Amino acid sequence: MPERLNQIGEREIINRLKRFMPKGQIEDDTAEINPFNKNILINSDVLVENVHFSEETTSAEDVGWRAVATNLSDLAASGVEQILGITVGLISPSSTTWDWVEDVYTGMEKALDKFGGNILGGDCSSGQQKVIAITAIGTVGPLRLHRSNAREGDYLVTSGPHGLSRLGLELLLSKDTSRDSFIPDQLKQKAIQAHQRPEPPIKALRILKNCKPKNISWRAAGTDSSDGLIDAIQNICDSSNCQAVLDANNLPKDHEWPNGSTWDNWCMNGGEDFELVLSLPPSWAKALLLALPSSRLIGVIKSGQPKVSWNHSKDLINVNDIENKHF
Fold first, then answer.
1. pLDDT tens digits for 160-179?
2. Which are the contacts of 142, defined by CB distance < 8 A and separation ≥ 6?
3. Burial of residue 145 (number of CB atoms within 10 Å: 0-12, 13-18, 19+)
4. Fewer CB within a 10 Å sphere, N or C end of the chain?
5. Prediction pTM value
6. Across-strand partners of 301?
């Protein structure tokens, strides 16, 4: 018979959770970190059962992983240099099994082992619905990405394909597998993985920093596409008071992505892709496109009232020149 939280009690729950944290980290009501005399990035995010996750699509371990990935993606989209760790607020009904809580923290631990940082502490409480609230902390390096840093003449680049998480969710919820028979098996696997175990763009950020041309400044605009690609671009336009003109012929799709309006919409608005969306000086954009195979040049920044528009001609961006290194 699985142990339930109302049988264990808060003190014992905290004692059991200590093994997921550095020794002595939560002996007090505060956590101590060493910021190395650097500026600190902090963000918080909340995952709510039946809004952001459900037992139908996400195991407890996946919930923990996704909770970490969501927050670390925000840090990456701000140019984080070092991830120091996270604090965790957990709310769950008293009937919740201990196994579920343990698996959630195991998922968090595995994500942090891969991407950096530790669980620094947090709190837990009883409630009617499962909720995980995370605060992530990191240091700022030479590249501080701001949504307000876009400039006329910049190239818009994404770090990877979009729409996979939305497809993954659809596949996990689908009761009629024959309906999805036309989708390649490899694409199905990538999509489900993207939804259940998304990866924050830590690697893409590192490549972005390493490939910056030496003769330009660290000025760049960025955000992540957790709420959808178009939403991310519009946020950059609003913050930078500029326009984005997107290349309708060069959406950031997986190479196996089907054609059709629904598929295009999932690519542009599906959400939870956790890719970087960047506005970069052309020379830096070109360097990134060569250094990061998954990246895609999708548009340009122009002056004007903030909005996102489309160009259907083939002369908006000379993509072939970039891909063939003729620049």
1. 999 999 999 999 998 766 66
2. 81, 209, 218
3. buried
4. N
5. 0.87
6. 244
